[in-house]
Amino acid sequence: MQTEDLLQQDVFDTTITEESSNQLAGISLWMQINAITAFVALAVTIVSTISLYMRYSSSIFSGSALGGGVLRFLLSTAVTVVMNILLLQASSNIKKGLAAQDQQHFNLGMQKMAIYFKTMGILIIVGLSLMILFFFLAMVFSAFR
Amino acid sequence: MYHQETDQLTDTNLQIDSDTSTHISGAGKWAKFIAIVAFCACGLGLLIALFGAAFFERAFGQFLPAAFRFSGAGTGVFILLLFIVIGVMVYIYYLLYNFGQKAPAAVEQGDHNLLAKSLQSLKIYFIISTVLAMLSLLLTLMTMANTII
Questions:
Q1: Average pLDDT value over all residues in chain B
Q2: CA distance to partner chain A, nearest, from residue B46 (Å)
Q3: Which residues of chain B are within 8 Å of residue A113 when distances are taken between CB atoms?
Q4: What is the rounded distance in angstroms from the CA atom of residue B143 to the CA atom of residue B149?
Q5: What is the pTM (predicted TM-score) of this model?
Q6: What residues have CB less than 8 Å from B133, skipping those under 6 apart?
């Protein structure tokens, strides 16, 4: 009897409360708006980059500068798309989970949110490592020049 | 008896099961890491703002109107703007840090209030970052419109 009570207590303790549920609904809404804003910003960036390229293609974008620029642009576009797809997936799954009280969707949403933060963290580590690498390379090159 | 009640609860309420708990803890740990890196970046920015006025003059001087250059009366204005930007950034990442600090602890201890507070921090983080992203998008669109006209 005592064990049963303890088990029930444990189940009740891990239930998501109304307050947390409301906060999660807010998070999923703002994650969705954030992702949509990022996609619109990406579209604007693509349009402005292409128009800039069309206007100044012969003067500033040429040779290796063009290649490097395109590579950077494609890389940043890919990262933005992946990150915001993760954010949208997290948002829609959390929303579905909350609306239908569906544990599977809710878990998937939380998983996507965790992957979103993990990806962001890994990108920061990669970015910092590259910065440090370039800093040391610049120091080495300037020492040997 | 126990299983019957558990099933009823699963049908009507969401649980923080082992999977959810792992995901929340994982998200929290990475959020904390991101926030700490952002704090370091803010600190570096603050140091540059305080001691690197000459560096900023060289780097951004040409983009500023004459009145806002360091040689002019706008030195204070520029530093103030920088402080405001850094202040806003610190606040945003403090919210993320708050989530990262409280969420794993809340899940571990089964503390509903702490979980709600950590989720509230995350919600405000997303609200502010979305509003800032929208403002930035609006500024970009206005600049583009000005260029076209």
A1: 82
A2: 19
A3: 23, 27
A4: 10
A5: 0.82
A6: A34, A37, A38, A41
